[in-house]
Design a protein that fits this description.
Number of helices: 1
Helix content: 10-25%
Order of helices and strands: HEEEEEEEEEEEEEEEEEEEEEEEE
CATH architecture of the largest domain: Sandwich
Largest sheet: 4 strands, antiparallel
CATH superfamily of the largest domain: Carboxypeptidase-like, regulatory domain
Number of domains: 3
Strand content: over 45%
CATH class of the largest domain: Mainly Beta
Structural class: mainly beta
Oligomer: single chain
Radius of gyration: 33 Å
CATH topology of the largest domain: Immunoglobulin-like
Distance between the termini: 99 Å
Number of strands: 24
Shape: elongated
Length: 242
């Protein structure tokens, strides 16, 4: 009787010990990283939410203290994406920590800004233009203006951006400064059109193509027709963007 109880007790202890060892092994797969969030002057940012994501969308959040620091446990060796959520500061893209290991990282943020871009031409508002904003070569905004002819960005970092606007065969590019909220209007000039000219001799029936004829368009240039009486396709600039 006591022997049976002893065997059961021993088996139970073995199960508990195995579970404990397994738990220690699982915990050892985690590493602790110290994340420090700083602004453009290098000063700590307190009260910011740091979101760490990895794998198939697994996520953990932490809030920075007055020192701008917080501790986070993440899987060892994982590629961890750190996003910062704050009412004052923003990153245009997450900070990526590759092959995570025990240690410390510093994540920089900048003051939030917004940009409202309106697209017009000589006829008025331009529907569905494509609006892009680049910062240091990184594409930050890529939106279509739609029927409103306007794009208002989500919060982005304040600073200098390259603005590119496309509509049909028209393109406009310039540099703008984004502050807390900049309103900017882009005026597209006329684009280009393809022109094909057929030169024929109506004396014949049917009319015959005239080769080596000279075709001149005022303000554009001169071309010669080919054997079929047609000059090569060429692009006639109407007016470039201002």
């Amino acid at each position: 009787m006591f022997g049976s109880r002893g065997a059961v007790l021993a088996a139970s202890l073995l199960v508990l010990l195995t579970a404990a060892v397994g738990g220690v092994g699982a915990q050892s797969d985690q590493v602790t990283i110290r994340v420090t969030v700083v602004d453009g002057d290098g000063d700590p940012v307190s009260g910011a939410t740091v979101a760490a994501t990895w794998g198939d969308g697994e996520r953990v959040n932490a809030t920075t203290h007055s020192s701008g620091e917080t501790l986070m446990d993440v899987p060892a060796g994982a590629n961890v994406s750190l996003s910062i959520h704050d009412d004052r500061y923003v990153r245009n893209s997450p900070y990526v920590l590759g092959n995570a290991s025990q240690g410390a990282v510093t994540v920089g943020v900048l003051e939030q800004g917004r940009a409202t871009i309106t697209v017009r031409d000589d006829s008025g508002l331009v529907d569905d233009a494509r609006v892009q904003l680049y910062r240091d070569g990184e594409l930050v905004v890529d939106r279509h203006a739609g029927n409103a002819s306007t794009v208002t960005t989500a919060p982005i970092a304040q600073g200098t951006y390259t603005l590119a606007v496309f509509e049909g065969d028209r393109r406009h590019e310039e540099t703008i400064e984004v502050d807390s909220h900049v309103n900017h209007t882009v005026r597209l000039g006329s684009g280009t059109t393809l022109l094909t000219v057929d030169v024929t001799d109506g004396h014949y029936d049917p009319a015959r193509s005239v080769s080596n004829a000279t075709v001149t368009v005022d303000g554009v240039g001169t071309v010669q027709t080919l054997a079929q009486g047609r000059p090569p396709l060429w692009c006639r600039p109407i007016r470039s963007s201002p």
